[in-house]
Specification:
- It contains one helix and nine strands.
- The strands form two sheets. Strands 1-2-9-4-7 form a five-stranded antiparallel β-sheet, with no helix packed on it. A four-stranded antiparallel β-sheet has the order 3-8-5-6, with no helix packed on it.
- It has a single domain, classed as Jelly Rolls (Sandwich), CATH 2.60.120.
């Protein structure tokens, strides 16, 4: 009987806190988000250590708020991009063939602000995960 009494308070606490956890969900990963009903990134390979994806960004598309473990990006087709994160908003011209080595990203948004379709091959290093943060840090935008 004592064992049952020890379990029930834990269940009650879990049920009470479950709605709060749903309200403060972590920022999703890059493959989980959509723009206008479409996923911008396609997975090519994944194992316990890495995930390889190709992201295609038509002009005006936004890879809405998402996170990444540390990653290496290879720009297949470049263009003009804008990134927003905790440091603010920055614009960049990404050249064809550019390679970026990026530390873990707790959250950011990536927008194609140019007039060409951009393609980027991303190799995520899953063993260098970002610190989880609540989606409340994400900018709100209409989709």
């Amino acid at each position: 009987m004592k064992r049952a009494l020890e379990i029930f308070p834990a269940i009650a606490i879990s049920l009470t806190l479950a709605p709060l956890a749903a309200l403060a969900a972590d920022v999703p990963d890059a493959l989980s988000v959509e723009w206008q009903g479409k996923r911008l990134c396609e997975k090519f390979f994944e194992d316990a250590q890495v995930r390889v994806v190709r992201c295609t960004f038509p002009p005006g598309s936004v890879h809405v708020c998402h996170s990444h473990p540390s990653y290496i990006a290879y720009v297949i087709s470049g263009g003009q991009a804008q990134t927003q994160d905790e440091k603010g908003i920055r614009k960049a011209d990404l050249a064809n063939g550019a390679v970026l080595n990026v530390p873990p990203v707790s959250w950011h948004e990536f927008e194609n602000v140019g007039d060409t379709t951009m393609q980027i091959l991303v190799v995520e290093k899953k063993y260098e995960a970002p610190s989880p943060v609540s989606q409340t840090v994400c900018p709100t935008r209409p989709q």
